[in-house]
């Protein structure tokens, strides 16, 4: 396993552990989130949007079911408000992950990868493939946060990160919110088909990236 995949795997394991802990403790379950949004919906769509934004930003620290939250946001607040809320939440989480990792990420890298030459190769490899990784990061729930953090650690140009992050998350969030807005308890088919479609599309893309790009060796300078 390359140093890059080793570090990304470690970060993914950390995010997964937060989900397992929260799930074990009964925190942030789908039922709880749906209950909060149902109550917020009795007030107004802005309150629903605020909860969606907060939950998606929280995903940076505790893994939450992001797609389900986006679908529910669209269901309760409508496609436009739900989409804006979902995109705002993911944007804040992405920027937060980038900035925090740019500031503190070196400490983690120095512990995981002790060889300076390998650390240099790790950063160079992510900068080489990072944009594509971000674009395909929605293939699994934890990967977006990992790629945001890796972008900060690798010192990817912030404007490059931001464009890639928005390119994938802008359509993703609005499609999810729209699917939620046209779904009902009696007809959840749009939401289900959207979730399946996203999964298949991004997994195919990620598989191609791993097959044709990540296997290419990259020597340290």
Automatic annotation (TrEMBL):
Q: Which Pfam families match?
A: VTT_dom
Keyword annotations for this protein, in alphabetical order, are: Membrane, Transmembrane, Transmembrane helix
Report if keyword Transmembrane is assigned. Answer: yes
Segments forming domain VTT: 64-181
Q: Which InterPro entries match?
A: DedA_domain, VTT_dom
- Transmembrane spans: 7-30, 42-63, 75-100, 158-179, 191-209
Q: Protein name, please?
A: TVP38/TMEM64 family protein
User: What organism is listed for this UniProt entry?
Assistant: Enterovibrio norvegicus
């Amino acid at each position: 396993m390359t140093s890059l995949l080793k570090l990304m795997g470690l970060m993914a394991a950390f995010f997964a552990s937060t989900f397992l802990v929260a799930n074990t403790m009964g925190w942030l379950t789908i039922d709880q989130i749906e209950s909060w949004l149902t109550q917020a919906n009795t007030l107004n769509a802005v309150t629903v949007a605020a909860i969606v934004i907060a939950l998606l930003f929280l995903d940076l620290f505790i893994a939450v079911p992001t797609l389900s939250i986006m679908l529910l946001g669209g269901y309760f607040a409508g496609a436009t408000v739900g989409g804006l809320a979902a995109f705002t939440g993911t944007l804040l989480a992405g920027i937060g992950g980038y900035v925090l990792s740019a500031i503190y990420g070196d400490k983690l890298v120095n512990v995981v990868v002790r060889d300076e030459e390998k650390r240099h190769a790790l950063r160079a490899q992510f900068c080489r493939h990072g944009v594509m990784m971000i674009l395909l990061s929605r293939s699994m729930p934890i990967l977006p946060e990992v790629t945001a953090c890796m972008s900060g650690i690798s010192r990817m140009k912030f404007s490059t990160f931001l464009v890639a992050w928005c390119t994938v998350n802008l359509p993703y969030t609005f499609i999810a919110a729209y699917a939620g807005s046209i779904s009902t308890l009696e007809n959840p088919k749009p939401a289900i088909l959207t979730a399946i479609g996203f999964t298949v599309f991004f997994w195919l893309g990620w598989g191609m990236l791993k097959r044709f790009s990540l296997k290419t060796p990259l020597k340290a300078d």
